Amino acid sequence: MKTTHTLKTFIRNIPKAELHIHIEGSLEPELMFEISRRNGLSLPFSSVEEVRRACKFKNLQSFLDIYYEGVRVLCQKQDFYDITWAYLKRIHAQNVCHTEIFFDPQIHTDRGIPFELVVTGIHQALQNAQQQLGISSKLILCFQRCLSIESAMKTLRQALPFKEWITGVGLDSSEVGHPPHKFAPVFEKAMEEGFLTVAHAGEEGPAEYIWQALEKLKVSRIDHGVHCVEDARLIKKLVAEQIPLTVCPLSNVKLHVFNNLAEHNVKHLLGLGLCVTVNSDDPAYFGGYITENFLAIQEALNLDRHEIYQMVKNSFQATFLNDKEKQGLLDRLEKFMFQDSQKDLVKNKGISYDMRKASHC
Ligand code: HPA
Ligand code: ZN
Fold first, then answer.
1. pLDDT averaged over every residue in the chain
2. What is the predicted pLDDT for the residue at 116?
3. Residue 266 near residue 301, CB atoms below 8 Å
4. Ligand 1 center–CA 344 separation, angstroms
5. d(CA 337, CA 318)
6. Distance CA 208, CA 233 (A)
7. What are the residues whose beta carbons fall under 8 Å from the beta carbon of 210, sequence distance 6 or more?
8. 264-293 pLDDT, tens per residue?
């Protein structure tokens, strides 16, 4: 009981990075209503509770249908600023020090909202987070794979004037029936323009889509990737090259990729030596932010301190930061681990932590 309590505290306090979060999926129902009111728009839900009740999904598509409904309230630059800022404040309270955020411009530009307005609102919040909260970040533009390659190419052209603010491009939305190879020309052009690449693959789709993301889209990370277990040769490659998987446990259960967390393969994948990271995906819809994801898998899979530490370390190493910045995060992590181990030592010897701290200062 006591161990569980300290492990929970450890999870809450350990400095973390998040690498898989759709900013539009962080729109909490309360803010959805507030923004819809100020924009004079109606929602297909009558109350916050009704939105929460609607958060029972059969699969990825049934989630996306509701996600697209909620997103329709976002119209002004201030709206994009506000959702991003709300997410950043939440993760600040969870000791996240670096985040890499997806945004889905086509959902907005297809409604007539200018690309510039979307990206500027998000960027301003990210800049403020660096200054006021000490959170560093990267922004990743996602193409919707259910739309055409022409639409993706047009979106890439819209992004070019904002290259300084956008580090990478990704691929999201309905996976099955939309194989990554379809988007190879867009990803090739994006790489020529200096963008890094990632893609959702192996969430609902097969291991074959992960191969395509690696070989045709040249991605640096796989988003989700949990279906890699179907293919031993793929596992071997992912381990050998330490290609990160941005796993989202609560999302996978909500969308029925796994029946429950006890059946989730995150611990198995970590044990195989894969570079597994833990992330929230769409926290407003899937029941929690990054800390809730860690807490839930710890409990369901009986993860120990070292496994939590390893996944946090993986996420720092998998960021799109430069080597010096990465080292800064890794140093912070090691300092935290040292202090945490000292706390245990002190507790076991019955000395108060304050006394130990005083003698170290
Ligand atoms: N999966 C795929 N596409 C998405 C998701 C997701 O969880 N959220 C927003 N777009
Ligand atoms: Zn996702």
1. 94
2. 98
3. yes
4. 40
5. 19
6. 11
7. 201, 202, 222, 225, 227, 228, 231, 234
8. 999 999 999 999 999 999 999 999 999 999
The residues pairing with 170 across neighbouring beta strands, listed in sequence order, are 142
CA of 30 to the centre of ligand 2 (A): 22
Retrieve residue 190's tokens: 């994006």
- The type of residue at 120 is T
Task: Give per-10-residue mean pLDDT for the chain (361 aa).
Answer: 75 98 98 97 92 92 94 97 98 98 98 98 98 98 98 98 98 96 98 98 97 98 98 98 98 98 98 98 97 98 98 98 98 96 76 41 25
Which ligand number lies closest to the CA of residue 252?
Answer: 1
Q: Which of 18, 175, 203, 204 is catalytic?
A: 203
- Identify the CA nearest to 18 among candidates 314, 290, 243, 292: 290
Report the nearest atom of ligand 1 relative to the CA of 172.
3
Residue-level pLDDT at 255: 97
> Would you state the CATH architecture of domain 5-348?
Alpha-Beta Barrel (3.20)
Asked if 103 and 141 count as a contact pair (C-beta separation under 8 A), the reply is yes
Helix residue spans in the chain (DSSP H): 2-13, 29-38, 48-54, 60-71, 77-92, 105-109, 115-128, 149-159, 184-192, 207-215, 232-240, 249-254, 266-271, 283-286, 290-301, 305-317, 323-349, 353-360
Q: To test the ligand 1 pocket, which listed residue (178, 200, 246, 247) has its Cβ within 8 A of the most ligand atoms? A: 200
Q: How far is CA 117 from CA 111, 131, 140, 159, in A?
A: 13, 21, 16, 12
pTM for this one? 0.95
For 134-160, what is each residue's pLDDT tens digit? Answer: 999 999 999 999 999 999 999 999 999
**Joined tokens for residue 150:** 């022409």
> Is 203 assigned a catalytic role?
yes
